UniProtKB/TrEMBL annotation:
Residues 647-670 have a biased composition (Polar residues). Residues 165-238, 637-679 are annotated as: Disordered. Its main location: cytoplasm. This is Apoptosis-inducing factor 1, mitochondrial. It comes from Oncorhynchus tshawytscha.
Length: 736
């Protein structure tokens, strides 16, 4: 009542103002025979102080009655909720224990036991439990749980409920009073109660071991167990054995300080560079291939010339110098298993095979795999390489043509083509570049011992017509033909179909070629699928991820290898698809990931071999559309790839090679290649200079080996040369 009186004192001024306004306006007039008569009596309202007048007493009475009624309603509501809550607690306390005690659970005899579960009274210290002799119900319980129950048995219904840990929704309202049993209410500042109550009908209940509370099992000794049971009044109180699901093994770490996407040469070179500068680094390589990192050049070169019938399985080959090695950079023992990457003391390199990164969150510094697994990182390298291009006419030709077409890139492609070359009678290679010409020579050499027909077709006038000057391209075409390959030049494919068990290729000039299998070697498309999700820029002219001179796409993201469109401080923006570039760019990216901040200035080289007796090395921009100057000399027996590898002791002619060579005794000697034919046009060996604005921007060393540092310095200097014949003398091409 005192509170209501204070409230009225605050509202009284408003009431007095209203009464004054009402008294001034509550008058009406009635006009009758021009006489003004009052329509209603003049209104009078009290404007005195609170407490004066009968009207104010009425207000006090109404407000007081309202407060009394509200208080009584709240009291009845709270009291009723308390009673319902206590009834629910008593009901739960009267249920049988779900955790099996040391003594077996008893059942009432006769039909009553089959109808309802036997109720177990709460166990107290003053009332011991009587246990009749009945058949026990067996339930699997861990020894640790039994031991703890023996040491500290529950003494109250609340303790039993805590061990039972029945998970149910809480009631709408619950109020505790001093008369009620001790109940721990779930509040932010208090430890959550192990008991949660609901008034919903019984439903399937999931049991789990409780969290550590007073009188329960410690967390470090308890193993979580889950059981699902449906309570039914018509079922006896039997409990199914707890099924403990087998823990899912962790296949890879959830976080990698250095994450490398792609399992090719660039990733491996970066991993070794990172470990060299940071010996304790933990590096994770993710590749969608099933193989560990390996080198690709032997897939189209040396592997095809091996006389070992098991080369497809061993993937070991004899180099031109007769030594043997594997295509893999390192054996499996070099790597750390992904499961142990976070545990090893000194870090290491782990390879996660058969996994593809499909999404990249550059803000959250994490990637998503094809199985929706997420891995976070501190620094990331994208070295996804490229995907072999295909001709649209082949893609539209149908399933029969598609399954008879090989896009050559990976180990599995080499194995598949090797099998095709032994099982079919005709193979047609579409493409006259490095890969197409190398495969044509390799398969042509194999056809000498079989009935295999090898055909190569391309739209240029000669082999490698986009790289070599026309006169040298024609000479190379003659060399490929001498290997037993039928070369079709200026061939533009119009349509491809499958008829009468053969693949039929129609050219635009009307020629038709029938074959059993097609190898499409028409270039490489950089793999940039992650650009969209990562928000990275793709170069519109050269393709690939656009990066700066430090190979950086973002502050903690680098790109290397075929997928990188980088800025060459000497030759401008470029994208290169060769082994040596993958080594150089991967190594530089690894150094920059560890804080080196070095620009890309090293001119990488590439090479191609048309068998063991003809090969060339190149550096810079080599494009047949540029003006060229060639200086040639007569070749000798030592001017061959075979002789060059014998002298250097390596089979991969790359100055930037960082991989170790695994040598082993040679079981049998490499078959001797045919003697180098006498060159009528004196193209045995030489140097070809590619010019742009009278400055040398590219150099090809034709059957000239181990002179790449000289070529690199010429391009780096960027000077005009009045007489390139004098420059060619730096390569010692006239020495015997």
């Amino acid at each position: 009542m005192w509170t209501c009186k204070n409230l009225w004192k605050k509202l009284a001024p408003l009431a007095r103002s209203s009464s004054t306004l009402c008294r001034q306006n509550a008058r009406g007039v009635l006009f009758n025979n021009e006489r003004r008569l009052p329509l209603v009596p003049q209104a009078h309202m009290s404007s005195g102080t609170p407490g004066s007048g009968g009207d104010n007493n009425l207000y006090y009475l109404l407000v007081g009655a309202t407060c009394v009624g509200g208080g009584f309603y709240a009291y009845r509501t709270i009291k009723g909720d308390k009673e319902r809550y206590q009834e629910r607690i008593n009901e739960i306390a009267s249920r049988p224990n779900k955790v099996v005690p040391e003594q077996p659970i008893t059942e009432a005899p006769g039909e009553q036991a089959a109808e309802t579960p036997q109720e177990i009274a709460p166990v107290t210290e003053d009332a011991p439990v009587e246990t009749p002799e009945v058949t026990p119900i067996v339930e699997e319980v861990s020894p640790e749980v039994v031991a703890v129950e023996q040491e500290d048995p529950p003494t109250t219904p609340e303790a039993e409920i805590a061990l039972e840990s029945v998970v149910e929704p809480a009631p709408e309202e619950s109020v505790g009073t001093p008369d009620a049993d001790p109940v721990v209410k779930s509040e932010p500042s208090v430890e959550p109660s192990p008991v949660e109550v609901t008034e919903e009908p019984p439903a399937p209940v999931v049991k789990s071991e409780p969290t550590p509370v007073a009188g329960s099992l410690p967390a470090e000794t308890a193993e979580p167990q889950t059981t699902t049971e449906t309570e039914s009044a018509a079922e006896p109180a039997t409990v199914a054995p707890a099924e403990v699901p087998a823990p899912t093994p962790v296949e890879f770490p959830s976080h990698a300080p250095y994450l490398l996407i792609g399992g090719g040469t660039a990733s491996f070179a970066a991993a070794r560079s990172i470990r060299a500068r940071d010996p304790g680094a933990r590096v994770l390589i993710i590749t969608d291939e099933p193989d560990l990192p390996y080198m690709r050049p032997p897939l189209s070169k040396e592997l095809w010339f091996s006389d070992d019938p098991s080369v497809v399985d061993t993937l070991r080959f004899k180099q031109w110098n007769g030594k043997e090695r594997s295509i893999y950079f390192q054996p499996p023992s070099f790597y750390v298993s992904p499961q142990d990457l976070e545990k090893v003391e000194n870090g290491g390199v782990a390879v996660l095979t058969g996994k593809k990164v499909v999404h990249m969150d550059v803000r959250g510094n994490k990637v998503t795999l094809s199985d929706d697994t997420e891995i976070s990182y501190d620094k990331c390298l994208i070295a996804t390489g490229g995907i072999p291009r295909n001709l649209q006419v082949i893609e539209r030709a149908g399933e029969e043509v598609t399954k008879r077409t090989t896009l050559f890139r990976k180990v599995e492609d080499f194995k598949a083509l090797d099998k095709v070359s032994r099982d079919t009678k005709s193979i047609t290679i579409i493409g006259g570049g490095f890969l197409g010409s190398e495969l044509a020579c390799a398969l042509g050499r194999r056809s000498a011992d079989s009935d295999l027909e090898v055909i190569q077709m391309f739209p240029e006038k000669g082999n490698m017509g986009k790289v070599l000057p026309e006169y040298l391209s024609n000479w190379t075409t003659a060399k490929v033909k001498s290997e037993g390959v039928a070369v079709i030049t200026e061939a533009l494919v119009k349509a491809v179909s499958f008829k009468d068990g053969k693949v039929e290729i129609k050219l635009k000039d009307g020629r038709v070629v029938k074959t059993d299998h097609i190898v499409a070697a028409v270039g490489l498309e950089p793999s940039v699928e992650l650009a969209k999700s990562a928000g990275l820029e793709v170069d519109s002219d050269f393709g690939g991820f656009r990066v700066n001179a430090e190979l950086q796409a973002r502050s903690n993201i680098w790109v290397a290898g075929d997928a990188a469109c980088f800025y060459d401080i000497r030759l401008g923006r470029r994208r290169v698809e060769h082994h040596d570039h993958a080594v150089v760019s991967g190594r530089l990216a690894g150094e920059n990931m560890t804080g080196a901040n070095k620009p890309y200035w090293h001119q990488s080289m590439f090479w191609s071999d048309l068998g063991p007796d003809v090969g060339y090395e190149a550096i810079g921009i080599v494009d047949s559309s540029l003006p060229t100057v060639g200086v040639f000399a007569k070749a000798t027996a030592k001017d061959t790839p075979k002789a060059a590898t014998e002298k250097s002791g390596t089979g991969i002619r790359s100055e930037s090679e960082t991989e170790g060579t695994a040598n082993s005794p040679v079981a049998s000697s490499t078959p001797e290649p045919p003697p180098v034919p006498e060159q009528k046009d004196n193209y045995g060996k030489g140097v070809i200079f590619y010019l742009r604005d009278k400055v040398v921007v590219g150099i090809i060393l034709w059957n000239v080996f181990n002179r790449m540092p000289v070529a690199r310095k010429i391009i780096k200097d960027g000077e005009e040369h009045a007489d390139l014949n004098e420059v060619a003398k730096l390569f010692n091409i006239h020495d015997d």
